[in-house]
Amino acid sequence: MTSLLPLCTVAAFTLGAPHNQSPSTEPTPVSTARPNGATAVIDATRSAPMTLELGELLVGQPKTMPFTVVNLRSEPFTVESVKGGCGCTTVTEPPKGPIAPGESFTVHVTVDPGKRGGIDLVKPLYVKYVSGGVESAQIIGRVRPIAAVTPSTLDASDPVAITVESLDGRPFLITGVSPAGTLVLPKEQAPAARIELTLDAEAWIRAGRPASLVIATDLAGTAEVVIPVRGADQVVLFRLPPATGDEAARAEIEENQAAIIRQIDALLPAGSRSSQFRMRLHPESGMLFIHGTESDIREAREAIRGLPESSRVRESAALPST
Question: What residues are paired with 127 via a beta bridge?
């Protein structure tokens, strides 16, 4: 179904000189044209593109809005085309003849939002002149979400039940999970408007600790739901005094490094470490890598803050997962 809004909501695209033409030296007249309703006049010297706001769209239902171009120059121009930046945007044909100063024309822009809800649309729109100049506008809108997921982000170190719920109450089925086996489905699944799943932490670790999980459904407009996962294996780098100098000096520094590692280990809360936790030291550079979940890293930072200043341990960087 196509929705056509009243023309009183027309967005005006006011044109001065096309981008590759020299603007007229004559004063620019203020247009008094108001085609089919109110038209907002926008200065063509703007630094950001004009915006055509579609508002809320429904999954699978194209929406049409009028788009008006007003000539504020002191000379006519001729438009070759008005086009969208992709196949989901169609535009009616502009007039073939010249547009006189103070005159305007209106085309209708139709955007197909596709089959996925809960996303923001940002699409380009281009006005091209016979002379070769181009003006651009921006089409924005929001596709109404079809389903809600709670929590929106999953903490792997403290897994809770995940709820997928259709916002309009329509029953649906979970048709798959990726990576397979990382989420546990109800034993006897039947179509429902609200379905709970739980994280299988061991399966998640075996899958390589992915940073997101994908739930597939048969709910129109929400074929897939993506859930980010916090707590995937992280790495932080700390600097200890490096083991440099002659053999005796290196041996002494390496002994101090080992003592610092023991102190960190002793300061970590008993039983708080996950199976992912590990510390790796490069004695020559003094680089100490600590791997683990967000909880592991937080506890390690607390332990290192408890070291005496004489240990000279400092955090250097947080690194991507390995």
Answer: 82, 135
Q: Beta 162-166 vs 147-150: how paired, if at all?
A: antiparallel
- Could you give all domains of the chain from N- to C-terminal order, each with its CATH number? 3-143 (2.60.40.10), 147-228 (2.60.40), 234-319 (3.30.70)
**Residue 158 pLDDT:** 58
Return the structure tokens found at 299.
């506890």
**Terminal-to-terminal C-alpha distance of the chain:** 49
> Mind listing the pLDDT tens digit for each residue in 51-72?
889 999 887 789 999 998 888 8
CA trace torsion 161, 207, 227, 295 (10° rounding): 70
- pLDDT more than 70, % of the chain: 80
**For the whole model, what pTM was predicted?**
0.48
Asked which of 18-27, 92-101, 270-279 is least confident by mean pLDDT, the reply is: 18-27
User: CB 264: neighbour CB atoms within 10 A?
Assistant: 20
Work out the burial of residue 317: count CB atoms within 10 Å of its CB; fewer than 13 is exposed, 13-18 middle, 19 or more buried: exposed
What is the phi/psi pair of residue 197, to 5°?
Answer: -130, 160
Which one-letter amino acid corresponds to residue 107?
A: V
Query: What's the pLDDT at 37?
Result: 33
- What is d(CA 316, CA 286) in angstroms, rounded to the nearest whole number? 11
Rounded to whole angstroms, how far apart are CA atoms 133 and 7?
A: 28
Is residue 154 scored above 70 in pLDDT?
yes
Give me the long-range contacts of 87-91 (CB less than 8 A, separation at least 24): 88/112, 88/113, 88/114, 88/123, 89/123, 89/125, 89/139, 91/67, 91/125
Q: Residue 314 forms beta bridges with which residues?
A: 239
Closest CA to 38 of 12, 73, 72, 15: 12
Amino acid symbol at 97: G
pLDDT of residue 89: 93
